[in-house]
Amino acid sequence: MSFEFLQPVNDAIVAHIALLPNQALGKSVKIHSKKEGLPALEGVQIAIIGIKEGRGSVDNMGTGDNFDIIRKYLYQLYPGNWFSAIADLGDLAKGKEEDDTYYALQEIIAELSKKKITPIIIGGGQDLTYANYRAYDKLEQTVNLTVVDTKFDLGSIDEEVSSTSYLSKIVMEKPNNLFNYTNIGYQTYFNSQEEIDLLEKLHFDAYRLGEVAGDVKIVEPVMRDTDIVSIDIGAVRRAEAPANKNAVPNGFYGEAICAICRYAGISDRVSSFGIYEYNHLLDEKDQTAHLIAQMIWYFIEGYNFRVNEYPFTSKKDYTKYMVPVDDTTINFFKSNKSDRWWMEIEHPNNKSTKRTLIPCTYQDYLRAGNQVIPERWWKTFRKLS
Known about the structure:
This protein has helices spanning 11-18, 68-75, 98-114, 128-134, 166-172, 193-201, 209-214, 219-224, 254-266, 287-303, 362-369, 375-384, and strands spanning 6-7, 30-31, 46-52, 86-93, 118-123, 143-148, 178-186, 205-208, 228-232, 272-276, 318-325, 328-335, 341-345, 356-360. It is an alpha/beta fold. The protein folds into two domains: 2-303, Ureohydrolase domain (Arginase, Chain A); 315-384, no CATH class. Strands 1, 2, 3, 4, 5, 6, 7, 8, 9 and 10 form a ten-stranded mixed beta sheet that branches.
């Protein structure tokens, strides 16, 4: 069984939880402990796992260790009006080789997916995103990946998998299940023009830091169309998250990164969520651990506000708007439950019998009314052609 590689949560954290008020989050989480062993997963919807693997992390030695600090701050927080059952499955120890860790993580995520359990992964190097992605091979579905990072981490296909090159492996290696990749928060001066042009050529999406910081709500439809979310804690400005050797002066503020995590949680489609590159050796006064705990809290908060609109449900739950744009008509759908929007793509080369619907915003609908075709519509249209 894949869970046999998991180590129990440290006894010190179990003891810490025992001393917390009854209303604290830690009191309601099923803990993998030395005394009780792995908890039963029946009814569990969210599983927290630490990954003690940092060998693939570039210039951030110390990552992949001591997640107890994060757990300490997470479990002393108070939950909202939540319905979801949460389990902490402990930590995955690093294997003899990195590939051994990747394999074990793939098996764990695949097993959780079969049980309809959403994993929250605490890393460890961001190269673990590659293992997370490969876990979807067994699910035989296309995958949309969203990464919050200052860089694209493309590297070269000839390089070994690392925190700075994992994306090229995801894009190029077979089986190729990737349909779309989105970067949120890239900073132009950390990425070559060739990389930016390549993403555009592949019809992938990328949002600059300033663009998202100016209006974090643009992340919501992106997350609504995402399966895997991978966050490099280095995307947060150094002053707010110092526990990463590659942290830089500019980045997301704590409030913005927590909002992004909430949007990820509220997405009906997101089925795995990871925060990577935490380095406890550099964590001044546990500041980054405290922030990561709050990021996880916001993801769980969002999860508990899901409205089950993916896959697309009955037409009676939506209002349809037909907007003529140039020589075509774009159909927009507005949910009567959540007021969220989708747009439909139809063209001769789409062999699927299902409608191709992608999330959008009310602003996209207004722009279409002004004869401006939304960029995400164009990119998806080209990918499907």
